[in-house]
Amino acid sequence: MNHKLWLLGRVAAVGAHVVGEKITRPKARTAGDVPVDGGSITADWLTAVLCRDHPGAQVDSFELANASSGTSTRAALRVQYNTQGEQAGLPTELFAKMSTTLAQRIVLGGAKVIDGESHFFTAMRPEVEIEAPRGYWAAHDPDSWRSITLMEDIAVTKGAIFSEPTAPIGRDQMEDLVRNLARLHGTFWEHPGLAVLKTPNEMLAAVLASIDMKTRAAVGLERAGEVVPESLRGQSERLWAGVERALDLATTQLPPTLLHGDPHIGQTYRTAEGRMGFADWQVVMQGGWGHDFAYTVTSGCDPEDRRAWDRDLLRAYLDELGRHGGKVPTFDEAWLIYRQQSMFAYAAWAFTIGRAFYQPRMQPEDTCRTLMHRITTAIDDNACLDALGV
Q1: Which domain of life is it from (predicted)?
Q2: For domain 159-388, which architecture applies?
Q3: Of 89, 100, 336, 343, which residue has the fewest beta carbons closer than 10 angstroms?
Q4: Strand stretches in the chain, DSSP E
C-alpha cells in the first residue's frame, strides 16, 4: 500500500511536469538537461553530450526521422559535426529513445525501470563483448521521469534487421542468441556492480504496485485461450503461483548475474554479417541466468523447433558460460532451472494481450498470440509448474 500511495503522488507530480512542459516548451541546451521530446533537442545539447571529450568539436546540424511511439518514443537521429568532430570520428547515425508522454513515464517510472538503459549503456555495456548497440549518452530526471538514451543506430551502422516475432527462427540464429546471453552472464557473474540493480522480486513488486499484472495476465490467458494448451486453460491462479515462485528462485536461489530482463524474440536483430544481438535494455536487473535463457528460447522457437533444439541450445549456453567466467551447473541442474524459469515469459505476454484500456498498446495482437502459444506450449511440454512444486 505504501508503494501505491507513493505512485499516486508521483502520478500527480509527473502530471504537473507534463502540463508545465506543454506550456513552457523548454529546450535542452546543457548536459544536465533531459529533453522533453525530440522537438526540445538542440545542437547545443548534442554538442554537450556527444562532444564532451573532444575540445573544439561541435554539432553543426541534426535531423530526426522515422519517429514512433510505444512504451517509449523512438526516432532516428542524423548528426553533422564541424571539422574537429568529423576528425574525432564522433557518431553520426544514432537512435534516440525518450519517455515523452505521461503514460510512458508512469509505466517506466512506476515499474522502476526508467533508469535501466541509462545504467546499462553508461556503466555495463563498455565491459562486455556482445552483439548489442553501443551507447553514447543516457540520462533521466527523477522528478519529471523524463529520460533519453542515445545509442548506435544499428539499422544503419550494421545493416541490422529486427526479428519478426511471428516468423520462425533458424537453429544457428537461436544458438547465437543464447551464446550471446552466456557471454553477458559470464562476464557479470556475481559482479560487485550488480548491487545497484533491482532483483526479479523487486521488479515484480514494482509492477504490481502500479498495474494489477496478475489480473491482466488472467484476462490475457482467456483472450488467448484458443492458442493455449487445454491443460492450462482456466489455470490462471496456478500459473501466477508459478510466476511468483520462479521469480523468487531467480532472486534468492541462483547466483546473480546481469540479466537483460525482457529478452523476447522481438528484441533481437540480425546484422548484415549474420550476427544475432539483443536491443532494448530497459529492464536490466540482477538475478539467475535461467530467467533470460528460458525467456529467449520459449518466446523465440516454434514448438516443434524447441522440442528438437532446446537440449542442444542449453549445452551451447553452458559451454559459452564456462568460457566467460560463469560457474557452470551440471546439465541436469541446468535443465531443471530452465523448466522452472519459463514462467515470467508467460506473465509478460499474458499481461500484454490482457491489457486494460488505460495501458499503452505495446505489441500487435498477432504477436501476442504467437508468443503465448509458444510459451504456454513449452510450459505444458516441460511440466514447468510441476518443476516448481505449484
Answers
A1: Bacteria
A2: Alpha-Beta Complex (3.90)
A3: 89
A4: 59-69, 73-81, 93-99, 135-140, 147-152, 161-162, 257-259, 268-270, 276-278, 285-287
Identify whether the C-beta of residue 57 lies closer than 8 Å to the C-beta of residue 88. yes
Q: What's the rounded mean pLDDT across residues 240-253?
A: 98
> CB of 180 within 8 A of CB of 278?
yes
3-state SS of the chain: helix, strand, coil percent to 5? 55, 15, 35
CB 311 within 8 A of CB 175: no
The DSSP-derived string for 127-157 is G---SSPPEEEEEE-TTT--EEEEEE-HHHH
Give the burial class of 12: count Cβ atoms within 10 A of its Cβ; 0-12 exposed, 13-18 middle, 19 or more buried.
exposed
Q: Domain 2-156 belongs to what topology? A: Phosphorylase Kinase; domain 1 (3.30.200)
- DSSP letters of 292-327? HHHHHHHHHS-HHHHHHHHHHHHHHHHHHHHHTT--
Q: What is the pLDDT of residues 1-30, one digit of tens each?
A: 566 788 889 899 999 999 999 999 999 999
**316 neighbors 179 (Cβ within 8 angstroms):** yes
Angstrom distance (rounded) from CA 15 to CA 80: 35
Q: For residue 344, what is its C-alpha cell?
A: 515470467
75 versus 70: the higher-pLDDT residue is 75
From residue 159, give the alpha-carbon distance in Å to each of 134, 272, 281, 364. Answer: 14, 5, 20, 25
pLDDT of residue 112: 80
Q: How far apart are CA 380 and CA 293, in angstroms?
A: 18
**Cβ count within 10 A of residue 313:** 23
Domain residue extents for the chain: 2-156, 159-388
> pTM for the complete prediction?
0.92
Read off the pLDDT of each residue in 313-322 and give the average, rounded to a whole number.
Answer: 98
Average pLDDT over residues 50-54: 97
Q: What three-state secondary structure class fits 68?
A: strand
